[in-house]
Amino acid sequence: MLVATATFAVKARWFWHARFRRLSETSTFFPIAPLPRFSTTKLAALVCSLCLAASLAMAADPVRLGAVQSSTGAYAAEEKGLTDMLRMLVSEQNSKGGLLGRKIELVVADPGSVASAYVDGAVSLVAKPGISAIFAGVRQDSCNAVGDVTERAKVVLFCPGENTSPSKKDWTIQLGLPKQQRVIPAIEYLRGSEGIKNWVLASTDAAQGREVNGLVEQYLKEKGVSADSVLTQYKRAGSNDWTSLAIETSKLQAANSTAVVSTVFGDSNNAFIEAFDRLGPTPSSTPVLTVDDGGSTDTRTPAAGSLSARSYFESLDTAANRDLLRRWKAYSGADAAPITEAMAAEALGFSIWVTTVELASSPEPTQWRGSVQSVKVPGYAGLDVGIDSTNRILQSVLLGKAQKDGTYVVEARTPILTGDTWNPRVSDTKDLVAKWNSGANPCLVFDIGVGCSPTVDHEKRTVDLLIATTRKVETEPDTSLRFVPERAALTFGATRVSVPEGHSFGQVDRRSWVQFITLQSKSDTEFQIQEEKALSRDEFTAAIKNANPADALVYVHGFRNTFEDSAFRLAQIVWDTKYQGVPVVFSWPSRGTTAGYETDYDSAEYSAPAFRELLRTLKQDAHVATVHVIAHSMGSRVVLQGLLRSEPKLGDRPLGELIFAAPDVDRQIFAQQVEVVRSMAKGVTLYANKNDWALFASKQLRSQFVRAGDSDTPDGPLVAAGVDTIDISSVGKDFFSLNHSTFSESMLAMEEIASLLSAGVRPPDKRTHILVGMPKASSPAYWKFPD
After folding, report:
1. Model confidence band, residue 418 (pLDDT cutoffs 50, 70, 90)
2. Distance CA 507, CA 569 (A)
3. Which helix (H) or strand (E) holds 14?
């Protein structure tokens, strides 16, 4: 009650202060210099002239982007979505000022699914002035035909569909997975992980099926699999007779472990699935791998438990993919067609094109073509993607398992695969060694010597965190730990946090009084500490090495936070963002009370050397390649002071992403210090908010010195060289909240942070497309979420 009363008092004071300030700016009763006055006519003329100037800038000399894609005929089901995706992307880019200040004009040639018309369409496009690039259709043969035209014209061609071999054309960029990179890693995965001995290759009698089966047969032969262990069967297109194959597969499975590779398409696929449901072995005992062409819009529900090898699934739960889906549905409506693998590849190609043109400062193909291999953009599977020296996109292969509702859950993924890693028709290619990684998160050793458990266990609804703390740690009679607000040397530990069944996104759920009196269980209503364990420094580093993570995330809490507050907040961030590295909570001895502000201020500085020691431990002892840091509120003081110290040595650029969320640091001091520490991180991001009541109160306590995270100033948020400032005011303006934790409570802000941690692409509107540059110019000073 006292906290709520204090909060309301602060807000009331702020409210009347703001009202008084606005009155003083407009009322003639106060001796304030009046603003310049314009007549209505002059003001309208000024606005019109500005609008006209902006319109003329966008209208002159458009950058033209071409597409040779069918919206009619047999290929329309696969290619219309490609064109619609381009239309959305062009519209979004134009709404942000176009490309290099020029409007993008999409010019579409519809070949009507007629083979010869693709060439005619390409000829008409390259003849247009200002054409910067062209996107082809989904099929390899049409891409090759269009590529002959663009090669002569020296215009870059992006091919979003699957391909079978490297293009020998310098001006063609292949965005789809090579066939062998799709099927061979999946075969290797089944051989290694499932111990498959017998293989059934089922296909409709078409070029695609014969090509895939030929690859598989030759690969298995080279791996020592006898011809007797491979059963290949072709049926004519449209055949419904798969009964005998289902029965034969059951016999093979009874004798030895068996897998089915299916390139059965069209109407035959329904009969194939039905026959195996009735007479064949179950998917749990006999994996069924489907190999599709990446562009299919087939709406048939896949058999539950079947596997598919792709570079993209619409159900991918990453910040980049959630952002793409949200934009696609907003553009296409609630009944939007699904995003296919080829559509996702085309979106990546568009992003690569925009980024490269901006890097080269010219849309002229001869000017930007040479830089395309140096560009990386966020991939939808959580890794950055780019173009290799063979003009192919570099991506991972994902192995998805179909669920009952038709969606896919990624079971495993390869690392980024480059070039032609295995192709029997190309000399000097090496056998592919697929290092598949489990789709689950890395694991931390919770009980040393017992083994690993997932960092995030979705079934048990738990999150495991490592602990580094300068709090005094006491052991209770029941062997649990108590973290008290007294200062101590740096110690380590681990904790397991449970996430309630009724968890609300962005919230550290606590039981309400209604839930308490209705006897609702704690596990259903609030975050809880399930287990805690003290670790030695060696055990702490061993736990991280055991997990072998790609990165770690250190969260440094703010003022008035208990240890439980900080652990629950990091667990919520990890759970909501699907973060997959090792999470570490750095807990310093905040007293956890409003009255303890000045004591907390000193304790934050006391903890700075220990924070620096934690970074050294992670980088040099545990060998973590990338360490990200999120500093909230007064935790920013801990981080800044720690980074500014000279000992212990951290090495060159020790941090990945350094994030300051609502930093409670004097604005001028922050600007001075961040100028020094920005070189120590890959990137620095500041999240500011003009509706942050806690920072308003802090300003009163600190002699009216504005805080770095407060954007409620005449000049707006703090802008510093080398820092990406993002104003999140519009997504955090709840009058009944302090709005001090908007960075972790808003879905939009959390997805922006998730995208930043997974990709690190800059400027910010390249990874989070709804961000608006301020001022609206080609080189904005900061960014904001739209109002």
Report:
1. low
2. 8
3. helix 2-26
Query: Which residue do the tokens 């599709």 mark?
Result: 292
Percent residues over pLDDT 90 in the chain: 50
Contacts of 116 (CB under 8 A, 6+ apart): none
Q: How long, in residues, is the chain?
A: 787
**Which of 406-410, 658-662, 689-693 is least confident?**
406-410
Whether the predicted pLDDT of 107 surpasses 70: yes
Q: Provide DSSP, 446-511.
A: SSTTT-EEESEETTTTEEEEEEEEEEEEEE-TTS-EEEEEEEEEEEEEEEEEE--TTPPTT-----
Cα separation of 184 and 734, whole Å?
A: 53
| Whole-number Å distance between alpha carbons of 235 and 131 | 45
Per the listing, tokens 């709404």 go with 95
The overall pTM is greater than 0.70: no
Alpha carbons 575 and 464: distance in angstroms, whole number: 10
pLDDT over 70 for what percent of the chain?
83
User: For 362-365, which contacts have Cβ atoms below 8 Å and span 24 or more sequence positions?
Assistant: 362/100, 363/63, 363/99, 363/100, 363/102, 363/130, 363/132, 364/132, 365/131, 365/132, 365/133, 365/154, 365/155, 365/156, 365/171
Q: Pairing relation of β-strands 655-661 and 681-688?
A: parallel
Does the pLDDT value for residue 57 go beyond 60?
no
Segment among 23-27, 176-180, 589-593 with least mean pLDDT: 23-27
What does the block give as tokens for 49? 């002239």
For residues 631 and 639, is the Cβ–Cβ distance under 8 A? yes
Structure tokens at 376: 């990386």
